[in-house]
Amino acid sequence: MTRFKHLFGKHLFGKRLSAIVLLAAFGLVANPAWAQTATTTFQVQITIQSSCTIDDPAPTDVDFGSQPSSATNVDAIGQLNVNCTPGTDYVIALDDGQNSGGGGVGARAMANGADLVTYQLYSDAGRTTIWGETLGTDTVAGTGTGAVQAYPVYGRVPSASAPAASYLDVVTATISF
Measuring CA to CA, which of 29, 61, 68, 158 is 20 to 30 A from 146? Predict the structure, then answer.
């Protein structure tokens, strides 16, 4: 044991331990020369579903304003805003409103109680193409761009000859895609 202490004294043993620790530290930090490699591949994916909105931003009402009862062919314009996934085909339909009495889009009317004021909605500025709800017949078709697309809704009251009052109808716009 004495001989062991003499050969590996405290002083010498401490220096060797320090050297070993130092060499180990360099071994961990140093970059070994890699002799071989292996590779693999993997996929990165997403599935985009078609979507459309017709209410953001909110539509602009077709407001005929205040008119004398003698007014004819009173025109107004509202707007629908559609936002669909790019490349998505869609169709916009307008129903006949709440006051058509089952007569379809040809019988649209604003009501105040039992009193009615007839009107019509069109998809063109010339007010020749009625905008209805029969797909492929009187609806408006488009293709999404990923941005909001504005669609004017052209309205006309052929005659304001009705009792003095405020008249209202609610039309539902539906987008199919």
Answer: 61
Q: Give me the mean pLDDT over the 128-141 stretch.
A: 96
- How many residues does the structure list for the chain? 177
Beta bridge partners of 174: 93
Tell me which amino acid residue 36 is.
Q
The HSE-up count of residue 31 (CA atoms within 13 Å, CB side) is 3
pLDDT, position 34: 83
- Class of residue 79 by CB neighbours under 10 A (exposed 0-12, middle 13-18, buried 19+): middle
- Give 88-123 pLDDT, tens digit per residue: 999 999 999 999 988 999 999 999 999 999 999 999
Region class of 85: left (phi > 0), else alpha (psi between -120 and 50), else beta:
beta
| Structural domains in the chain, sorted by start | 70-176 (2.60.40)
pLDDT (mean) for 36-50? 95
Contacts (Cβ under 8 Å, ≥6 apart) of 154: 75, 76, 77, 121, 122, 123, 124, 125, 127
Q: Are the beta carbons of 109 and 168 closer than 8 angstroms? A: no
To the nearest 10°, report the CA torsion of 120, 126, 132, 137: 150
